[in-house]
Amino acid sequence: MPRRRAVIQSTGAGIGSLLLAGCLGGGNGNDDFPSQQFHAIIPWGQGGGTDIFTREIWQEIADQGDVSVGFENITGAAGVRGISELYSTDPDGYTISPMNSPSVVPLLTQDPGFTIDEFRHVGAYTQTVWVLVTDPNLDLNDFEEVASAYDAGDIEAIAGQSPGEPNHVLAESLRSELGIPWESYVAYDGSGPIIQAVAAGEVPAGIVTETAAADAEDQINVLTALSSEGSPVFPDLPVYTDYGYDAEIDFMGQFLRSFMAPPDTPDERIEILNKSLQEALESDTLQSWADDTGNHLEYLGGEDEVLKVLEENQERIPEIIDLNDIE
Amino acid sequence: MTQDSLFSAIEILITGQTIGWLLIGLLVGIIIGTIPGLGPNLGLAVALPLTMRLNGPDAIILLISIYSGAMYGGSIAAILINTPGTAAAAATTLDGYPMARQGRAMEALSISATASAVGGAFSIITLILLTPFLTEIVLMFGSPEYFLIALFGIALITVVVQESMVKGLTAGAFGLLLSTIGLPVAAGQPRYTFDMFILYDGLDFVAVLIGIFAIGEMIKLIGEKGSISNENISLSGSSLSGIRKVISAPITTIKSGYIGMFIGAIPGSGASISNFISYAEAVRSGGGDKEYGSGNHRGVIASEAANNGTVAGSLIPTFSFGIPGSGATAILLGGLMMHGLRPGPELFADNVNITYSIFFALLVGNIVILLLGLFIITRMVYITTIDTNYIIPIVIVVASLGAFGLSGNWLDVYTVIFFGIFGFFMMKHNYSIIAFVLGIVLGPIAEENLVRSLQLSDGSFWIFLNEPIPLVLTLLIAAVVVSPILSVVRSFFNGTGS
Questions:
Q1: Across the interface, do B397 and A21 touch by the CB < 8 Å criterion?
Q2: Among A322, B302, B311, B318, which is least packed, fewest CB within 10 Å?
Q3: Cβ atoms of A257 and A124 closer than 8 Å
């Protein structure tokens, strides 16, 4: 008898907890587009640049459409988990994800069973430029002096993120396309740690995002923008082509940030989302947020422009690095 | 300049609704910290978008109060039901839960509140004093130093293992081995993923800790009758006795707070590591006191003072270089940037008053934690008198739900279940849980920084000896590894060894 009572107690408590857990679920509805809640799947962690951009922009788009938006960070496998989740979602225009152009690398190496050009692309909202930074205690004042120092063997290492990350591809591009013969690539876990290592003299040079470099201008030398179009954050910064380099590494020197929807999302919904994105980016709310926070927001094109960049990345990255090495 | 900034910081804190946000943040943090698996990361992630409408200082103070509250809140479930609300309180279970089983839950909860507040306060005051030099301090530590600190933590396995050394080293090595699953930072090749990208980022050690401590203990409780606090023992102890215990151990408390602060300042680590290192150091300095693990109040002090000390430490790399020490500080960093507060020199120059206001908010927060902990939280001891037939299913469901909430990955739920069973058998056969945890949490930091150091030195190990800080750390590691051997030799010659 006591045993039966114990089973009933345990079962009751378990079912009660499950019911409470179940209350966390949501509802559904359908009407003119958009009339329901948007669902943004963010394949990267909370608090990162992509997460912040997505939350700010889609909150504004939802506000303008008089609907709500829910954000879900599905992280892991360098973004592939979240992108896979988007791939298998209903193509009703309500679910979107941010996409950064260098993310084609994990899609190429992990082969999740789809390609990036199967998705529908809503539009691009900004691009981020990579810059070369050096240890301020070294007497390296421009890109040419850095190249000569590597050439002479005075310095050997260059810092970036894990193999396959954009600054690794860029470092390889500097060597193979521009002929800058660095000896060893040292991987760090993000722009912040790279800057710390460069500032402390642990490595002579590194490749970081322009926004990260702007936060640490007093501690490092920001030498060159690795995009021929220059850096919006450092408008006066020389670019690598100023030093006579003809090879083009812009495909990786600047990365495009955009939004995408599942494959087969209807054209008319993509058009509505694209128009909403443009309006949001021009809104006073987002522009003043961008001004206050030092970010740059600008509509940079729709599906055709985004696909052009992603396809160029897909094509050129395997020419620069051996994808078998990072599988 | 500094004096003006300090006054300006106090003004920010006491005007408008700032104190209100601080209190809300602490309460939310404590509640979220109490629920296994939820923890500060989830609390901060949910709160982050809600702060969009707040001004910068209010938003950051709300977020940091959630973080600080969760650090303390994690200890409540750790003590009452052996289920660390957060990974930061996992070491608290080691002595806090045995205290609860002995009917001393109220004393353990009051020790936790007092040690959290004192450890947190000391580290924040130190942080305020060090503010002008933070950048220079961060630059003193690089990859070789980080590797050696992680290795020091791993070396502490030899100290904390109280039973069989072979079993302890086996547990530590297995933890290290598990930490190699996934994609390492230094190389592009994932390991042991079996072509499944749910394994690409390795095992989430928070899920491992929830499994080992929460589920493992619940499996054990299934074989027992009655409530968590043994039925023939009445609830004893008071809030006052807890305060007295902390006051009587000032060195353990302050040292643990500083250990937490120091570990928190290392990128990639955090309170989930500092509570174990601090606990191990308490065991070491206690001369291998056999009471550790069976209800020694110093064990609770060491863990709880350290995890709240970690909050202050983790702000050092976050504020000075934008390097988050943990998942929680990564979200906090996002909050800073969302409100136009960029990490780096600006936070210590033009915006230094905001920086100080955040530090003061943490200080006030610790006082609030003390008051809430002593007068409200201690009333929760009656949970330990509830029949385990109710407790067990609730903990299993909440722990599984919390695990899924870590990153929406079913792997974390499977991890919790697997390591629950695994932890139960580890405990049953006296394999050291602390050794295992030290291995799994420190492995990635040690590996990443070892590889990087050797890349920088062209493979030469001289990099770990050629500067004063690495040299001192290397000698400390040698001392920790050799001391148990010396102790055995000494016992042998004294005729007392076995």
A1: yes
A2: A322
A3: yes
Q: How close does chain A come to B322, measured CA to CA in Å? A: 5
In this complex, which of B188, B407, B456 lies closest to A76 when CB atoms are compared? B407
Q: Would you call B202 helix, strand, or coil by DSSP?
A: coil
Q: How far apart are CA B459 and CA B457, in angstroms?
A: 5
Compute the distance between CA of residue B495 and CA of residue A153 in angstroms, rounded to an integer. Answer: 61
Instruction: Chain A: give the shortest CA distance to residue B405, in Å.
Output: 10
Q: Contact B335/A47, CB-based, under 8 Å?
A: yes
pTM, to two decimals: 0.81
Q: Which residues of B26-41 are buried (b: 16+ CB within 10 A; e: fewer)?
A: bbbbbbbbbbbbbbbb
Each residue's pLDDT tens digit, A220-259: 999 999 999 999 889 999 999 999 998 889 888 998 999 9
Specify the long-range contacts of residues A265-268, CB closer than 8 Å, at least 24 apart: A265/A91, A265/A92, A265/A93, A265/A120, A266/A91, A266/A93, A268/A33
ipTM value for the complex? 0.77
Nearest to A52 among B190, B337, B396 (CB): B337
The answer as to CATH 3.40.50.300 being correct for domain A38-125+257-326 is no
| CB distance B73 to B32 below 8 Å | yes
Res. A26 pLDDT band, cuts 50 70 90 = very low
Mean predicted confidence (pLDDT) in B338-342:
79
Helix/strand/coil for A47: coil
Buried b (16+ CB within 10 A) or exposed e, B174-199: bbbebbebbbbbbbbebeebeeebeb
Contact B387 A9 (CB under 8 A): yes
| Nearest CA distance, B334 vs chain A (angstrom) | 4
Cα angle for residues A194, A200, A203 (degrees, 5° grid):
55
Q: Cis ω on the peptide bond leading into residue A193 (within 30° of 0)?
A: no
CATH 3.40.190.10 is the classification of domain A129-252: yes
Indicate yes or no: CB of B387 within 8 angstroms of CB of A196.
Answer: no
B448 close contact with A: CB closer than 8 A? yes
Q: Please spell the DSSP secondary structure of A276-291, one letter per residue.
A: HHHHHHHSHHHHHHHH
**Residue pair B419/B76 in contact by the 8 Å Cβ criterion:** no
B85 touches chain A (CB under 8 A): no
Spatial CA neighbour of A165 closest among B183, B350, B58: B183
For residue B185, the chain A residue with the least C-alpha distance is: A162
Contacts of A293 in chain B (CB under 8 A): 337-340, 342
Q: Is-contact A142 A224, C-beta < 8 A?
A: yes
pLDDT tens-digit series, residues A68-109: 999 888 888 888 889 999 999 999 999 999 999 988 888 887
Q: Does B54 touch chain A (CB under 8 A)?
A: no
User: Rounded distance, CA B35 to CA B31, Å?
Assistant: 7
- Sign, CA dihedral B230-B236-B242-B244, equals negative
Residue A25 has pLDDT above 50, yes or no: no
By the 8 A CB rule, do A141 and A323 touch? Answer: no
Q: In angstroms, what CA-CA distances link B338 with A213, B18, B56, B206, B284?
A: 17, 18, 8, 27, 43
**B87 phi/psi in degrees, rounded to 5:** -60, -25
The residues, ordered by sequence, that sit 6+ positions from B466 with a Cβ below 8 Å of its Cβ are: none
Q: Tally the C-alpha atoms within 13 A of residue A306's C-alpha that lie toward its C-beta.
A: 28
**Where exactly does CATH 3.40.190.150 map onto chain A?**
38-125+257-326
Helix (H) or strand (E) run with residue A131 in it:
strand A120-134
Q: Which of A71, A193, A200 lies nearest to residue B323, judging by beta carbons?
A: A193
Question: Does residue B171 contact residue B493 with C-beta atoms inside 8 Å?
Answer: no
Residues 116-155 in B contacting A (C-alpha not used; CB under 8 Å) = 135, 138-140, 142-143
% of chain B surpassing 70 pLDDT: 95
